[in-house]
Amino acid sequence: MTLRSLLAPFFAPLLAFFVSALLLESAAAQQPDSPDFRSVHPRAGDTIFSPLQLPTPTSMRNGAGRPGEDYWQQTVDYKIQAQLDPGTRLVIGKATITYHNASPDDLDYLWMNLEQNVFRSDSIGARVGRRAAIGMQRSEGVGYRLHSMSSDGATLPFQIYDTLARVELPTPIAAKGGTFQFEVMWDFVIPANVFRRFGIEDVEQGRVIQIAQWFPAVAVYDDVHGWNTLPYIGTGEFYTNFGTHELELTAPRGWIIAATGELLNPEEVLTPTQLQRWNDAKHTTETVTIIAADEVGTAGWRPAGNGPLTWKFHAENVRTSAWSASDAFIWDAASLYEGTPPEGCVNTIVQSVYPKEGLPLWGQSTQMLATAIRGYNERWFAYPYPSAINVNGIEGGMEYPMIIFCRSRRSERGLYGVTAHEIGHNWFPMIVNTDERRHAWMDEGFNTFINYYSVRDWFPDSTGGRANPASVANLLTMPNQLPVETPADHLPGRLLGSLQYTKTGAGLVLLRETILGPERFDYAFRKYIQDWSFKSPRPSDFFRCMEDAAGADLSWFWRGWFLETGHLDQSLESFTPATESKPASFSVRNLGKLVMPVMARIEFEDGTSEDLRLPVEVWYHSHVIQEQIRSRKPVAKITLDPDRELPDGNRRNNVWPSIEG
Ligand SMILES: [Zn+2]
Known about the structure:
This protein is an alpha+beta fold. Helices cover 22% and strands 27% of the residues.
């Protein structure tokens, strides 16, 4: 999601947050405790440099932070036929689900995620006082109505608990290769007033419906938690299985559908003119209009005939699917590359669908989307999918494989920012599949980090995205901090955005630009993405993988930035002028809990200057370090962190002669 769409619902109950912030004070020193970290609680004698107590490496997740030789994960394939009745907002679905058990365990039951149930008035999400988090003013939905769950014609018993269902199996699914196929039939009414992750917008020429979290999906069974059964409360996002999704989506003839996957039957759902334009778009990087603004709703804009139309999509290696339908869509498309794409890249068809309210800005959306994807391809990992679609509707900003929802209609900066962010999620978590509900920073923060550089692809003069390390100094000194490694649903709204997006993103910028340097960082980060593409890393895998490939002990950084709270304040404590026998020197004191390398600029009276960079290891033994100045030239001024690379909470003590004096 975007930070903005996350925070919007929280402005109203701001007062409540101030109150809850006070209550949280006593919890400020709490550290996360999860199976991912046997213990990050400080032990007697621990310093910020002590080795992290990470889980013992296994042949599944090895000590180098890579998937080991016995790595396994489950695969779930979905064949879904669904119908949309735009008038009643009813979605009716039937799915054939094939579950592949690669785990070493026989499975006696399956857990399913039923996210629509969060909209029931008795849901946990509706009751934890954060209805805003699910984007509703009042609970009005009834959730899923499950009509049947069966396998081979035999009914499968199931029990529903809030947003979860336990399905009992006739016989266990065998370990290491067993499969189980079953059918589910369900329906739900899209709540009228929902704007979080999906929803409905009435526009001048019709309705735009965005549909997500729309089918009963098998939960993840993994090596760390077994079945992942944290409820869907609204803020914490998703952790899902990879698989193939075959969608057959039916809507009235006058409606356009965009979805996760490659469109398989354009000749059935487009007019001959539209089909020609669609094919043209596959051969040019220029935006081709498939349905123009003045064609929407006119005679002959849809294929001749009566009755609804079924749109067919096919997607592989996706962790979920979503779609959108409208009788008001303008549609344009372009190819990601001209001719043969660069090695390893796919010539994705990039598309935008939007109502005329999106104009004129949305006329640029397809080029924005293509620009962002090309940038990520070049810097990190090639976008693997044949299609990418930007949809303009009620949802502020939400990501799904190959399809994203963006609200922004006014500002070019806003639309590019949201587009680059939401499509960036196709790298984190759609390709590197993390557990978003427990570790939101591994998708929102990593994405905020890659967005930092992506902004310059569209606005070359930009100084970068919001993840500027120096600008998070205030965040680190804010009262009532919690560690970044805290589940999203446990965080107050004000911390969710600042920790899991901004602090994480800024931390990675700091690691790249200042601590490791771009070459060393990029090699390791690309290795992490490559090794964990289409797999599920834990935080400990990330830490180990980065250390292994960068060749650096970063325990102090992971602990200081992600696992604990603490701020940075380097202070230039004193200056001792040179004498006959001794060169001049200065001392620096580390006043905060965080440690960082030391950068200093020494300016001499003759107008020359000298820059000094000291590694973080200078803090191994003491909070105060003494550094000699080799040059005998008289010193005029010394400045710590002169280029403002660090999140130093107090810059007034960074200069000699003291600026207070
Ligand atoms: Zn996001």
